[in-house]
Description:
By secondary structure, this protein is an alpha/beta fold. It is built from eleven helices and eight strands. The chain has one domain (15-287): Alpha/Beta hydrolase fold, catalytic domain (Rossmann fold, 3-Layer(aba) Sandwich), CATH 3.40.50. Strands 1-2-4-3-5-6-7-8 form an eight-stranded mixed β-sheet, sandwiched between helices. The longest helix is centred in the first third of the chain and has 15 residues, at 83-97.
Amino acid sequence: MNNQHPLPLLPVQPEFDTWRGHRIATYRAGHGQPMLLVHSINAAASAFEMRGPFNQLQSDYTMHAFDLLGYGNSDRPARVYQAEDYIDQTVAQLERIGAPTVLIASSLGAAYAIAAAARVPDLVSALVLACPVGISQLATPPSAFNWSLYRLLDGPLGRWVFRQLTSKRSMRFFLARQAYNDPASFTPETLTGFYTPAQIPGSHYAPVCFVSGLLTCDIAAVYPRLRMPIQIIWGRQATTTPVSKANEFVQMNPRARLEVIDRASMLVQDERPAEFARLVRAFLANVG
Length: 288
């Protein structure tokens, strides 16, 4: 990635940190208590999907976001990507901020955020989890089958599969059917924001690991032990991660509060950004 011409994923220019010799794109805006945004994992993930809270909350908070390695404006090295990498990158961002931070994360990124919060609890003042997984979904540790599948996909076949998943036709279908509920919220700008990062050379390395099952993250043991306030926000129309799964997160930690947003699917923070931000503000006002 040429950092002189970064992708316009968020309305600020990225800066670059180093994680184990690789460049990690970071974004910052606003003033006040720090918040850190962690995006989900998919074939075309990046901090772009966190633009809603980044824009909506920066009037009251210092917003921090970053692209996980292999995505967005961060480096895309040829390597085996695993959950531990992304947990460690999240911890590194919290340590870079260096103060108690509100951690906002989506889907599988929420599982990494939970694991990171368990490791450095003094650096996480509250958790906001959008359609999280890691208990009964995407929680099974990689098996011999997953490693065999990875070896099969780590080459021309995997690149071919990735190209099919990230064609404009495929991405339009996935985003409109699973990530967003309201057709009005899925704009040409949205499609471009997902499609463009996936066309950069090396973009297939991390998604191949995801498709192979190497990026799962089991948080069932650490999540109940968290002591910071937790807000769960779910899109009522989410299908990949249905709202029925919210009960797992509410029942396993008494500090968790659930809010459900109507007419929203899996990327609830981007589909209903104003309502999402309103719920976050109210939650933090009540626990503060």
